[in-house]
Amino acid sequence: MKKIHKIIFSIVFLFVFSCENYIDIVPDNVATFDLVFNNRTNAKKFFFTLYGYLPGFADYNDNVALVGGDEIWTHQTWTAMTFSQGEQSKASPLFDHWGDGNRITPHIALRDCNIFLNRINDVPDMTQAEKDRWIAEAKFLKAYFHFHLLRMYGPIPIIDENIEVSEDIISVRIGRDTVDEVVDYVVSLLDESIAGLPSQIFLEGDELGRATQPIAAMLKAKVLALSASPQFNGNSVYASWTDDEGTPYINQTYDENKWQLAADACKEAIDYAHAGGHSLFTFTSSYDLADETLYKMNLRGAITDRWNDEIIWGQAYNPTTSNIQNVSFPRIDPAWVGQTAGQVNSYYSAPLHIAEQFYSINGVPIDEDTTYDYNARYDITPGDEANKFYVKEGYETIGLHLNREPRFYASLAADGVLSYDVNNEADDTSLFHVDAKNGGVSGYINERQYNQTGYWPKKLVHYKSFIANDSYTAENYSWPVYRLADLYLLYAECLNEAQGPSTEVYQYLDEVRERSGLDGVVNSWASYSSNPSKPTTKDGLRDIIHDERLIELAFEGHRFWDLRRWYKAHLVLNSTPMEGWSFSRATPETYYTIDNYGFTEFSIRDYFWPISEADILANPNLDQAFGW
């Protein structure tokens, strides 16, 4: 490995803050490290500062992956919408996480991780066992921030230690390390971290959200899966992107063994997760509910049931889940037709192609299902007896909204689709339904409060969040940064790439499907697909696993990164129309006309963020991102 780089800092300008307060040790609020680390109370404040650098994963202003791709469209002028339309700039990069003047500052986080690791053993009134745990958590966070930068910027400088301000200017001007070097470094940090972390959280009231062995092991699996994926594994597009010695930043030789390393890491993470008490979520109710309702709620609850056992890493109580619910929530109670006071905004809109990616009721793509009338999917069709727990009987909707898998109805609200919620939780035969046409309870209100495409990501809304009188009340939940279904599907992907289809690949893939009422992939394709042998080949099963990830993890911020690591983003996101139904129309015949509300744009250069021109000029040893 190359020389491990350091990062510069200045004590004079360092303000130390935590989730609670600034450390008010001296009158001007500038804390010297001797004071910070002279007792446990101050050291604890500094320690929790490290967690404070994490982005708000449920906040679309922090997490570009929520809205910066093609899963969500909105008429709002958010930065992420500008980003998704290809308006990135090296003069002033959008979602710039490289510098120190932005909302998210990983390099400052790494500086503080290094300070903490260098000084924590100076604290006199702590046991070594407690110090060791905090050290393990700091190493986990240090690994995470490197991973965060790696996904955004590709090859990055490894920040192992800080540089004193007395160092010469040449030492400060550091360059990128190769992707393989960064991956090796992050994995080594995580191995050290895992050894010192608890298997699970026991003091739930105080510690939920802090690092555990399952969390660190899953991060390790994700790092190695990224390294094995086409974006970074033998990608010849980047052959000319080299350091001063001519070494490509991204290796130019495909290495299949990387998939096996990733699969082994996934299995290790699964073992840690099971040992730590994690399992796939299943919804329980004291009421007599139909299987169809329970299947829907299994997936919704995996996201919104606070600290449920499926969540491996959740972000502790986060008020922004109220915000994301507000924009994802369709109005469904007929009593509130046309009202605006205290109402939800509802402008988080899923485009038509996302609605079409979900499977048929038989668990295969709708354009492969030999029993599904794909060509008639846009025809106006009333809800019927067979779909009575999914779509309002007799309501004039379209074929696309009928005979779909439970995850379609769990993830999306759409015209005519029923919504299980607190209003009628005791009786799933009398649920409210979406009426998305103009004049309907869920339809257009004003130029701000409406859904453009006709599809709401209902999956992100807790079923106990509600609208009443002139108020909206959200049931906040812990955002699932990592959950077990994600890990199962990642293991299936890595194992298929390493060894091809196998009983074990099917096992983990099918466990996720069966939780939502679907048969296993082999039986489903053999019985209903026009390509019945698809799951029996590595290429065919790869396509199935990719689709499973896009469906199961929809709207959670994974599609954005998966399309990049699969090196599909330039194919899927370039000039992609964001289509939906005609929200301003009032009748089924006019509403069900496809409108195009815009396009996403993506080129090869967009796989990596540009570093601002100012930072490049300040450091001649730092190469600009490929294509910029």
From TrEMBL:
Residues 310-628 form the RagB/SusD domain. GO terms for cellular component: cell outer membrane. InterPro entries: SusD-like_N, SusD_RagB_dom, TPR-like_helical_dom_sf. The lineage of its organism: Bacteria, Pseudomonadati, Bacteroidota, Flavobacteriia, Flavobacteriales. Keywords: Cell outer membrane, Membrane, Signal. Residues 108-202 form the SusD-like N-terminal domain. Pfam families: SusD-like_3, SusD_RagB. The keyword Transport does not apply. It comes from Neotamlana sargassicola. It is found in: Cell outer membrane. This is RagB/SusD family nutrient uptake outer membrane protein. Belongs to the SusD family.
